[in-house]
Amino acid sequence: MEEAGREKDRTLAEEDPNAATKDTATVNTKPAKRYPLVSWIAILGLIMLVGVYILSLSLKQNGMLFGLMQTNMIEKEREKPCHDPTIPDLEIPYIHYPTPNTYDREECACTGVRFFAILSMQRSGSGWVETLLNSHPNISSNGEIFSVKERRSNITTITKTLDKLYNLDWYSSAAKNECTAAVGLKWMLNQGLMKHHQEIVEYFNRRGVSAIFLLRRNLLRRYVSILANAHDSAMKQLNGTHKAHVHSKDEAEILAKFKPTIDRKTLITELKQSDKLAADALVNFKNTRHVVMYYEDVVSNRTKLMDVLDFLRLPKRKLLSRHVKIHTKRLRDHIDNWEDVNSSLKGTRFESFLNGRRR
Fold it and tell me: To the nearest whole number, what is the mean pLDDT of the chain?
């Protein structure tokens, strides 16, 4: 019987040799299992939610980290021998006790020092304001340090220069050295400040540097001053010497005689670029401790500088400067092609500059 059964199977296999492959083909032709579109959307949505959650945790941790850094800074200052217990906690990060490498502060070792930077643009009155501040016995503002390109070639050279300055090791005619209570510099926006603004903001916050913005409302008057200064740089009208600032009315009158011819095709572009540069700077440094003042306000009201002394927590003093203003007349009297300039700005957002106002 068994032999007969095996023989029957062999006979069937010989009659239909494709039977096994048919069964296999039948199994393999079943459709692959697919996930519906709704499932894929749900999975992607879940991934996005997880990503947002992780990002929120990261931002929260960064905020907590900055808070911890501020707290640690306050605690470290409290442990120093010069710490004044009457100083409010919020002020502690901005009061420093430098130990210069080039001299000993001696009896002034425990005189707290504020770090500051005057952030401005060329021909915006920063030279004049700096001399006013330097007339204060406790302020040392060391000029346009970053006008030297090598000092601003990269962020490393910038921070190295700032470290030397704020350690009271920078020597200049403005240095008060031992008993300085506020030390800083004049820094133009186009001298590496905007290029490396993120790193500089971090440095200011870490080192407790306060920013003093000095800007100009009437950008047309500033442009006239730029052109006149460039002309004197080339012509050297004062006995063969170029002077960006003058100390006598006679010198001011000589320089004011030059009336630039302004290219009306590029004028609005120049004004827009200057306006944007100032606006961008205010946005980029909004998270620093800062104060904003305008040249025109200081000219019309010298008490505005008392706000700066309050900002630096310094005693109020009468501030003096030998600088003499060069362009004192109406704008029409300082521009050679006034009618062209007037027609170019009429109907634009800069029209009010023609009358001496900002907008």
Answer: 86
**Residue 358: per-residue pLDDT:** 45
Please answer whether residues 198 and 330 qualify as being in contact, where contact means their C-beta atoms are separated by less than 8 angstroms. no
186 vs 80: CA distance, rounded Å: 30
Would you say residue 23 has pLDDT above 60? no
The residue to which tokens 């200057």 are assigned: 274
| Lowest-confidence pick of 50-59, 228-237, 297-306, 335-344 | 50-59
Rounded to whole angstroms, the Cα distance separating 237 from 253 reads 11
User: How many whole angstroms separate alpha carbon 151 and alpha carbon 168?
Assistant: 17
Q: Is 353 exposed, middle or buried (0-12, 13-18, 19+ CB in 10 A)?
A: buried
Nearest CA among 338, 328, 326, 324 for reference residue 260? 338
Listed range (53-57, 110-114, 147-151) with the worst mean pLDDT: 53-57
- The one-letter amino acid code at 182 reads A
The CATH class of 90-355 is alpha beta
Q: What is the side-by-side order of every strand in the sheet holding 209-215?
A: 139-141, 182-188, 114-120, 209-215, 290-294
- The two tokens of residue 32 are 């692959």
pLDDT in tens, 127-179: 999 999 999 999 999 999 999 999 999 999 999 999 999 999 998 888 776 78
The one-letter code for the residue type at 274 is S
Name the token pair of 164.
């030397």
| Rg of the chain over all Cα atoms, to the nearest angstrom | 35
Helix (H) or strand (E) holding 250: helix 249-256
The answer to whether the CB of 254 falls within 8 A of the CB of 237 is yes
